Amino acid sequence: MRFTLKLGGLGLALAWLFAGGYALAAEPDLGVDELEDSKPVQTSGHLQFDLARTYAKPEHWSMARGRAELTAQGGGDVFKWKISGRADADAVFGIDSGFYPDAVRRDQQYEFNFRETFVDFSAGDVDFRIGRQQIVWGEMVGLFFADVVSARDLRTFYLPDFEQLRIPQWAARAEYYFGDTHAELIWIPVPSYDKIGKPGAEFYPLPKGVNVRGEVKPDSSMGNTNWGGRLSRLVGGWDLSGFYYRSEDVAQTFYMVGANEFEPRHERISQAGGTLAKDFGDFVLKSEVVQTRGRKFNSYNPAAPFGLTAQNTVDYVVGVDIPAFNDGRVNLQYFARRMLNHDPFTGLERTEGGASVLLNTKLNRAWEAEALLVSMLNRTDYMFRPKVTWSASKSWRLTFGADVFGGKPQGVFGRYDHQDRVYTEARWYF
How far apart are CA 271 and CA 290, in angstroms? Predict the structure, then answer.
């Protein structure tokens, strides 16, 4: 789990950052024997419309976004490729053009970006993937812990599905399998970073009234590239892994550069951790742990340079997934962060813990209900997300839900108490 907002004191320091296609009519003669097994190009994608109404005062429309995502892929047994892109247009900025600042409108009204776009090939027993790709090293319900490589689009907080929230990285990845062991090395020459939007946006992490300069990102020198490795193995039914990752932090550190003025920058950090999972039949046990060194947090201490203090941390989570109800499940998780060199001027306790409960059940053949509650345990601070989903067919899905935040303004959820909303999402796959 990542604590990416690092502003001074409890009110600003506490930030827990969780939880058939078409064949071409003809193909060119490439003149390469190895490519004779190439398969027809396949295309797929989806269209999606998201509509959200924030009912907490001031009541307003907060999203009316259309999204189109298209993927094409092809190749054969030796060489494969994939290209995908996403285009967004949000009409909410035309519905109420004066509600959000111009900087927010420019940042979120229209957008196009490449999603997974890469080539796959092998050299001996080693498989390579070069290009923009998702590298997921950990996955818990509603939370980020060992998933240290992924950048995230946080302009709508942690509310979207993780497959939409994650930002692919431009990376070179090598993988080697031997027996029940899997080794993986990655190098990211041009890292992607979390998108947090602009001041005045619906889920901008800093409170209103704070002056924020433009984000400073590391240059493209070799010293600022990201790299790491992961080793996983199946031992007696236990799926175990360990990793080390050296990177420019995908999360922003807010430097105090003037009176009530901050500048987002990125720290050079190192992270070591591991994951485990085992299916016991009646339930599945999962756990992840990550130690992070080099990250800085905002401090109340007036003597702290730029209002920051370095804190080495250990984040950990234990969860169980239990089949229940009518083809549903219950997921329970306990998570915490331990400050190894605790500085009380951060406004955080040495150990900050929380828990989550997810209930999911099939109501009938087409309808599914789900509710997720995530709460901090050191103080009143929570997020509640009930929803129902109608799967009209294999191609159509319609979701109705609500996102409710509670707690004091200092909390990671309570700070969004005025962003309580109801929403609907319609998606068509093709």
Answer: 7
Q: Which of 363, 364, 380, 385 is nearest to 415 (CA)?
A: 380
pLDDT digits (tens, 9 = 90+) for 2-21: 433 344 343 333 443 333 33
**Domain count across the chain:** 1
Calpha distance 139→314 (Å, rounded): 17
**CA 247 – CA 109 distance, rounded (Å):** 31
Is the pLDDT reported for residue 293 higher than 50?
yes
Which of 63, 3, 6 shows the shortest CA–CA distance to 265? 6
CA distance 76 to 146: 33
Is 307 inside any structural domain? yes
* Structural element, H or E, at residue 13: helix 9-13
CATH number assigned to the domain comprising residue 411: 2.40.160
pTM of the predicted structure, to 2 decimals:
0.88
Three-point CA angle 364, 370, 371, nearest 5°? 150
Domain extent, residue 177, equals 9-22+61-429
- Residue 42 resides in a domain: no
In a domain, 2, yes or no: no
Q: Around Cβ 358, how many Cβ atoms within 10 Å?
A: 21
Tokens 């080495």 belong to 312
Q: Is 196 left (phi over 0), alpha (psi -120 to 50) or beta?
A: alpha
Q: How far apart are CA 243 and CA 292, in angstroms?
A: 12
